[in-house]
Amino acid sequence: MRVAIAGAGAVGRSIAQELLENGHEVLLIDKNPRAIKVETVPRAEWLLADACEIAALDDAALERCQVVVASSGDDKVNLVVSLLAKTEYGVPRVVARINHPKNEWLFNESWGVDVAVSTPRLLSALVEEAVSVGDLVRLMTFRQGEANLVELTLPEDAPLGGERVGSVAWPRDTALVAILREGRVLVPTPDDTLEPGDELMFVASQDVEDELAELLSAN
């Protein structure tokens, strides 16, 4: 897919390198000449322009992008880029970086944001995930509350230990998407069993999280 990244700082360049390694086309956009470091990501396209201006986004051919990433260090810029990408160019997927937690409430579909990434929130979630067993930890929110990526490490005395995935009556609007077991990532099938110590990754709506946590918790 073709991905445009607004903001060619350290974050934007790191994202670009990862995407290029995975076989995608990447365009980096930045208005600061000092940020145009072509030698750091030589396989990417580069554009010296203000991503908040329609003329610049026309030059970037944003209508041909499947994803736009607003990764600048300025939340105002990221919101404007997200809104333009969604409303003016119909980009299917817009991901925006939140620099300041107090602005998190703005990063929603009204501003064209499909996925908002807050570094402080993500770090705190990862800390919780690292130390929590038997507690449901929210890792990421999609479309501002429509669904969340949540994780739970199955306790030793969990009632579902040894149960087949397909035999569990999961709450509505819940999907078990991965099982992390002994360093391996398993794509669950109905015949796979749940084992104590498994890290279970779900995509679930927020209103069933309590029900899911109760189902998976220890007696």
Automatic annotation (TrEMBL):
RCK N-terminal domain: residues covered: 1-117
InterPro entries: NAD(P)-bd_dom_sf, RCK_C, RCK_C_sf, RCK_N, Trk_Ktr_HKT_K-transport
GO biological process: potassium ion transport
Keywords, alphabetical: Ion transport, Transport
Presence of keyword Transferase: no
Recorded superkingdom: Bacteria
Segments forming domain RCK C-terminal: 137-218
GO molecular function: monoatomic cation transmembrane transporter activity
PANTHER family: POTASSIUM CHANNEL PROTEIN 2-RELATED-RELATED (PTHR43833), TRK SYSTEM POTASSIUM UPTAKE PROTEIN TRKA (PTHR43833:SF5)
Protein's name according to its UniProt entry: TrkA family potassium uptake protein
